[in-house]
Amino acid sequence: MGAKDTGRNRGTLAHRAGYALRHPGRVPAHARRALRDTWLRLLHRDHIAYYRAVMASDAARGAEAAVGHNPSREQWARIGRMQFDYLLRHGLRPDHRMLEIGCGNLRAGRLFIDHLEPGHYYGIDISPHILLAAQDTLVRDGLQAKLPYLSLANDLTFAFLPDGHFDVVHAHSVFSHSPRHVIEECFAHVGRVLAPGGFFDFTFDRTEGEEHQVLHEDFYYRTETLVELAAGYGLTARFMDDWEELPHRQSKMRLTAMSDRARTVGP
């Protein structure tokens, strides 16, 4: 499954101590993050509310700070292009309807919106701060005529969205920040909004060792855990080996409905 380092448990004291010794310059930033985590966890017991507060804290430092750990503009654009090119190779057509979970400030969404027909892109996010940044991206790229939908979400039940509407559902770097119950909520409801033949692509931080989390912000899962969880909600999972060839540290999986006899929209 590629050359990613999937054996380490980044949550152990031994790993953190070793990391600090190898990267002493990063210790102050990590300490500030740990203090923030402790404070926000006291304020917000619900994970969605907690992570919304994390994003608000990040966004206060700059629009891109809430997506991808404050990358450069060049890296921001590169990762967005990587997502877009991948789905384009897998059959994304202008007439498809797309739901992007965790659309952020449209790192990839701006490319999806430009490619899709007007009104065919629906982006949701838990952060009002980042959705305002997404509006700025639309203006900067001149995409107003594409009439994308951008909505604030408080969960992943998709209760306000219609049945069988989306050919493609996409979530990049969402489950890497999600505990199991949030992922399970998504799996329990995403099949309802998928159109016949549609698929749901998502990335996740993969481990081949013990599943763990770091500061309640980064979560690492075994592939088989997510496959079994999806199967419990009538979804067939496929590990996307070709994504492993790309320069991205997360892995990708695709879900389709077990009951769907139609050919999926992508190869």
Describe this structure in words.
By secondary structure, the chain is an alpha/beta fold. 37% of the residues lie in helices and 19% in strands. It has eight helices and nine strands. The relative contact order is 0.14.
Name the features.
Methyltransf_12, globular, 37% helix, 267 residues, alpha/beta, methyltransferase
Q: Portion of residues in helices? A: 25-40%
> How many strand segments?
9
Unreliably modeled segments: none
Radius of gyration from CA coordinates = 18 Å
How many individual helices? 8
Structural class designation: alpha/beta
Report the average pLDDT across residues.
Answer: 87
Q: Biggest sheet, open or closed, and with what strands and sense?
A: 9 strands, mixed
Roughly how many Å apart are the termini? 19 Å
Quaternary class: single chain
**Strand portion, in percent?**
15-25%
